[in-house]
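help with this.
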Amino acid sequence: MKRVLKTRVFTRWMKKTDLTNQALIDAIVEFESGLWDADLGGHVYKKRIALPGRGKSGSTRTLIAVNKGNKCFFMYGFQKNEKGNISKKELEAIQKVASDYLKLSEKEIIEFIETGLLEEIHNET
């Protein structure tokens, strides 16, 4: 399985939801099986993740940066009842940041984790 990381922005948003790290891991397992909602270009994918007690259609949308290597980054999240979708301008900004994250070396990733810019998550089961 890919190395799973989340950005500080995503982590802050996630604290406002009932989303768990294990739900993110499960989403990546689904993603690796070809289950995602949209390829938004620039290595950014939209993936719905169900909240406890709700189906995927009424829950969260996440934007994940994924490369062909071994890492993925949860970049951005929103609930369907908060907004229908992101704007073209927001997507372009996310794609730019995603490109930068996907180019990070192992050393840079470790530094980002140590400074709190990134958080790595692991399978809890």
